[in-house]
Hints:
Helix content is 44%, strand content 20%. The protein is an alpha+beta fold. It has 2 domains: 2-162, Jelly Rolls; 166-274, Homeodomain-like (Arc Repressor Mutant, subunit A, Orthogonal Bundle), CATH 1.10.10. Helix 3 runs antiparallel to helix 4 (142-160).
Amino acid sequence: MAGDLVDEAVRAAPAPPLRGLVGWYSGYRQRGVPPARHRGLPSPWLTLIITLDEPLSIAAHPDPRDAPGDYPTLLGGLHLTPALIEMPGRQSGIQVAISPLGARVLLGLPAGELAGTDVQADDVLGADLREVHDRLREASCWAARFAAVDDWLLRRMIRHDGVRAASAAPVAGAWQRLLSAGGRLRVDRLAAEAAVSERHLRNRFRAEIGLTPKAAARVIRFDLARRRLAGRPGALDLATLAADCGYADQSHLDREFGALAACTPSDWLAQEFRNIQSGHHPPT
């Protein structure tokens, strides 16, 4: 019945002290929508998902050695291949986009320890995540849910604030420069600006970010391209998109989509068209 359809998508900014460590919160609730399979694409953000009702069903992880499964809470690091998520027509939860530079402060470990993996978030974050999980389920509206996540992350930030300096240099500056440049900076230039060797920068990036600087640049550029594509579906030609995002040509863009999304840009748009049109932000 049409009256049974629920398709909510709400995005909110974190509390001001968390900005820079957390990009945004996305709340989602769906009931009665057609079943589908969603691609969780590589991005410059770690993914924390706290479900509200049914668990998140992962059909395939970025690491193919990881078995499919259901996740009441999920924590995922940066990755170079997509996850495949079953969307059976019923799902709800909150996704938290966490900067790799916020991992030590908010999660208590460097982002490199989560690279290419999805794990049960409770296994990493422990009892206080289970507590906020309960609070989210009891909250009556999205504003109250986002406020509960704010409160929880602010308490974690205060608890772990002493470790923030561990990744301050040279990784933090180089990461921010890469983001600002849309991934279009050479590694040798990044290293020179940070006054370190390329090898040292590469090793520090692997530990603190979870990717090498070259791989991180690929992911940042790809994420920018697919977000611009989603922002103007049907109105932006791929050759122009490729040039604007620093790809050599449209074929280069197509190859990167094949490598990082396992599909073409046009196929991805077709698969995600309903979500894009409705403003829905599926998990990961």
